[in-house]
Design a protein that fits this description.
This protein is α/β, with parallel strands linked by helices and 710 residues long. The chain is 28% helix and 21% strand. Among the domains are: 122 residues, Rossmann fold; 153 residues, no CATH class; 68 residues, 2-Layer Sandwich (Alpha-Beta Plaits); 79 residues, Alpha-Beta Plaits; 56 residues, no CATH class. Helix 5 runs antiparallel to helix 11.
């Protein structure tokens, strides 16, 4: 990859120092750094010449304005570059207008390096599709049904309302009686359970309407409220269509508009809308017939820790997903609806095994961007250019939500650009799809790479996915963990929202100014994303990546703690004397962190345990307890390289006929106590119990005669 970086002052020459940026950019793939006073205008011809002279295949330009970006992209395409080979850095709203010149200059140089590092890890795009019909069910809202009727096949469920004198045109709308009791299913396959007291045999004669109570019977569609009083009118129907006890039926739909209805998930579900406006109408119309969208997830169910053999294990992805895109069709299974995925990353940051990962940005891409932002040896820090301690003195990595949070920061930049006091600390931004993308591995890696702190910058109350303050639990856990790691509290959540940038700036100032310089040096850590060199899992799973980061931090801090608390993807196994050495736990364990030896020892690999709990749930004796947290003394580097530790010592029985170890003494005695009386004597004339033979020899003893078993 041959990259050219182009720095433009964008009409604000005092915002950053272009020469300082050129000095600060240090990524090896950047062939040239050029600057111009008006890159997207007079400078385009010179930029094109630079692209040709250096035979560039990627362009990174400082251009936050959409029009400037378009012109620069067109220039690059005219020189033969791919449309996706041009990337942009916000050096104005996000740097020059809200920071002083040294800090803005350094931040811009670092961000250019990080952008290049991210481009190296960019994933190719893929799509997923799901077919659907045009049937839209609207619940109780005639205006919404009328608005959609010219675009879709619309059914309006009355839900107790009377549309006998409609204010809206319902000529092309099927109006159905009944009240909605439940909505289930997904896009293209919704089912609505309806209950009514008038059946489909109704002929609309209105006799019950005429004779019934005014508030208890509707005329169009004809129906009787569940709480309507009893009376003779219930017997007046000429076709016996009144059912006082109520009847239920199911209505299918491709999409559902249910204004004021129950929210099926925290962040909304594809094809289900609990309000109606112009945006919803456009969304419904765009999804008629089906949907094709980018594929957001890479899924590998072979390493999923959801459970096995009817035993429930890890539930983190289903608990985390705010969009009903992850379900459990069985107690030990997980299913992903990729068309319903909204790309928030909640399931991926929660998954400890890497069974589900974001396609873009991948964890590795985020890691490389963070490392590049913090790599002061290869570019980024330009304090020497300005002299003294100018620039960014306290590097704080900020995971910034690409939705409302990013927009809010840009609006603060524009405020500062027109002279308002809207500046804030020069945090180092890493764009994420949503703050849900950020998990414990991301925070720990940033600290392992030398960040003084980690700011998670989200949308707060405006979040489209998880609602206000979605990372409170993560922040609390991480600060407990970093406290145990002798780093102190170094993680915080911020929501730049509303018209008060001073509040955001004040909270951020207090956080950054309260941080001490990290004892972990910057520029020295390049993550491999693995917990051990021979790990069977792909790199950058939550557990393995977090383990690698903790090890890096421990090298510098040497914490005197038995357990590092707050780390949810690490489990500590304890086994009681109730253990009978049945192979259930080792069979169920999705990461092979448990094994049983032939000499009756149960062994545990702490470095591989992801705290899914399936061994504890599945243990027939209830002998296993799993507690969260990392215990450094149980890691192989603190046990002379030994990965396995004994957690229970029992006794394995060897078959008295062939010598093969086949079960534990505890298991044999347990089975013998339960069914021994029923099988007494089946071994024939032998001095041994039938329970002392392995399965194969036991069959031979029973069917070939006792003499063969002596």
């Amino acid at each position: 990859m041959k990259v050219g970086a182009f720095v433009c002052d964008c009409g604000a020459p005092d915002a950053i120092d272009a020469e300082g940026v050129r000095e600060g950019v240090g990524d090896d793939d950047v062939e040239v750094v050029a600057s111009a006073g008006h890159l997207c205008g007079d400078g385009l011809e010179k930029a094109a010449a630079v692209v040709n002279e250096y035979d560039l295949d990627h362009v990174v330009a400082t251009a936050p304005d959409a029009g400037c970006q378009r012109r620069i992209r067109e220039m690059a395409e005219a020189q033969g570059l791919h449309p996706d080979a041009t990337a942009f850095v916000d050096h104005r709203e996000g740097s020059g207008w809200v920071h002083d010149t040294p800090a803005a200059t350094e931040k811009t140089a670092r961000t250019i390096d990080a952008t290049v590092a991210g481009l190296r890890e960019e994933s190719p795009s893929r799509t997923v599709s799901k077919e659907a019909g045009d049937h839209v069910v609207v619940v109780g809202d005639a205006a919404a049904a009328s608005a959609l009727s010219g675009r879709a096949d619309v059914t309006l469920i009355a839900n107790g309302r009377d549309f006998g004198d409609p204010e809206h045109d319902l000529d092309e709308v099927d109006v159905e009686r009944g009240r909605v009791r439940e909505v289930s299913g997904s896009f293209g396959e919704f089912e609505l359970a309806l209950e009514a007291r008038v059946t489909e045999d109704c002929i609309g004669c209105m006799k019950c309407v005429e004779q019934g109570p005014d508030e208890g019977v509707t005329s169009y569609p004809v129906d009787i409220a569940p709480d309507a009083p009893d009376g003779e009118y219930l017997e007046c129907c000429p076709v016996d269509a009144i059912e006082p006890e109520g009847v239920e039926r199911t209505l299918e739909a491709d999409q559902v508009v249910y204004p004021g209805g129950p929210t099926k998930s925290r962040g909304g579900q594809l094809g289900y809308f609990s309000h109606f406006d112009g945006g919803v109408a456009a969304a419904v119309e765009s999804q008629l017939g089906g949907i094709t969208k980018p594929q957001h997830l890479d899924i590998e169910m072979d390493i999923c820790a959801s459970g096995d053999s009817g035993v429930e294990g890890c539930t983190r992805c289903t608990d985390a997903c705010p969009h009903e895109a992850v379900s459990r069709p069985a107690v030990d299974e997980v299913a992903f609806d990729e068309t319903a995925c909204m790309n928030c990353g909640a399931c991926t940051s929660a998954c400890p095994t890497g069974a589900v990962e974001l396609r873009e940005p991948t964890n590795e891409r985020l890691a490389r961007e963070v490392e590049s932002l913090l790599d002061i040896d290869e570019g980024g820090r330009v304090s020497q250019f300005f002299g003294g301690d100018a620039g960014i003195e306290s590097p704080v990595v900020a995971f910034v939500c690409s939705e409302q949070a990013a927009d809010a920061l840009e609006s603060y930049g524009r405020r500062a650009g027109r002279g308002e006091d809207a500046g804030y600390q020069p945090i180092l931004p890493v764009r994420v799809n949503c703050t849900d993308t950020v998990g414990e591995a991301h925070v720990l890696h940033a600290l392992a790479a030398g960040a003084d702190g980690v700011a998670i910058v989200g949308c707060g109350d405006a979040c489209l996915h998880s609602g206000p303050d979605p990372k409170a639990e993560l922040v609390d856990r991480m600060n407990v963990a970093t406290g145990d790691l002798e780093l102190g509290a170094r993680t915080a959540f911020f929501a730049p929202e509303g018209d008060d940038p001073a509040a955001f700036a004040g909270e951020l100032d207090a956080f950054v100014e309260g941080l001490e310089s990290s004892p972990v040096p910057t520029g020295e850590h390049e993550a491999t994303g693995t917990g051990r060199p021979d790990s069977p899992r792909e790199p950058f799973t939550t557990h393995d990546w977090a383990l690698e980061s903790v090890r890096r931090i421990i090298e510098e801090t040497e914490p005197d703690r038995d357990v590092i608390r707050g780390l949810d993807t690490f489990g500590r196994m304890e086994v009681s004397d109730a253990c009978n050495l049945t192979p259930t736990c080792s069979t169920l364990c999705p990461t092979d962190a448990i094994q049983r030896t032939n000499d009756g020892e149960l062994q545990f690999n702490h470095a591989d345990c992801v705290n899914c709990g399936v061994c504890e749930s599945g243990c027939p004796e209830g002998a296993i307890t799993i507690e969260p947290g990392l215990e450094p003394s149980r890691l192989p580097e603190n046990r002379d390289g030994e990965e396995w530790e004994p957690v229970f010592e029992g006794e394995m029985l060897e078959c008295v006929r062939c010598g093969t170890p086949f079960t534990s003494r505890g298991s044999m005695e347990s089975v013998r106590d339960e069914v021994g009386d029923l099988v007494e004597g089946v071994a024939g004339d032998t001095e041994h119990s039938i329970f002392e033979y392995c399965d194969e020899c036991r069959a031979q003893v029973v069917f070939q005669g006792a003499n063969n078993g002596r």
